[in-house]
Amino acid sequence: MLRQGSVSFGDVEMPFDREKDMYVPGYPNQVFFVTNSQPPDGSDKNLGPAIAFHTIASKRGFRPVHYTGLDARTRGSSLDWEVNDDFYDSIAIVLYLGEPKPGSDYSDNWALPAMKHALERGKACFVYTSPTFPKEILQEYGIAAIAKVISNADEFEKHLANDLNSVPKTE
Fold this sequence. Notes:
Layout lengths: L3 E6 L2 E6 L4 E2 L6 E6 L12 H12 L3 E6 L9 H12 L2 E6 L14 H9 L3 E6 L5 H6 L6 E3 L3 H13 L6
Parallel strand pairs: 4-5, 4-6, 6-7, 7-8
Antiparallel strand pairs: 1-2, 2-3
Helix pairs in contact: 1-5
């Protein structure tokens, strides 16, 4: 009989701990990253921060989950359920807020309204912003105190590595 491991339900694989006789939500040591901004190097590709996040988180033994391009319109969509599950099942949340994409504005990010709830639940939350990101938006969503201003990809990687080192693993 299976005591520990994972059980698959179609495309979904869930950890299983027989000692607790229940399915454990999420995955151990999952960390979440989301952005809907231009990357810190100013290129038009939005994968720079996500790739750095994935690499750094993986090297530190975390299971990285990342979403790019999630705007406020994602709320209420079928993707919203998946993103919510990943967000709240993660032990740490990483958010990059930079220059808005064309046709968007600074506050057009799926995660902004959820950050307050993550902080209230005691999750490790790390917010990185571009130098021009409006502080008023950070204050509106209650994350001004934890935001770090970064001006390039190297700074993002350095701060992210240091911050993820402070997150205790669950196993």
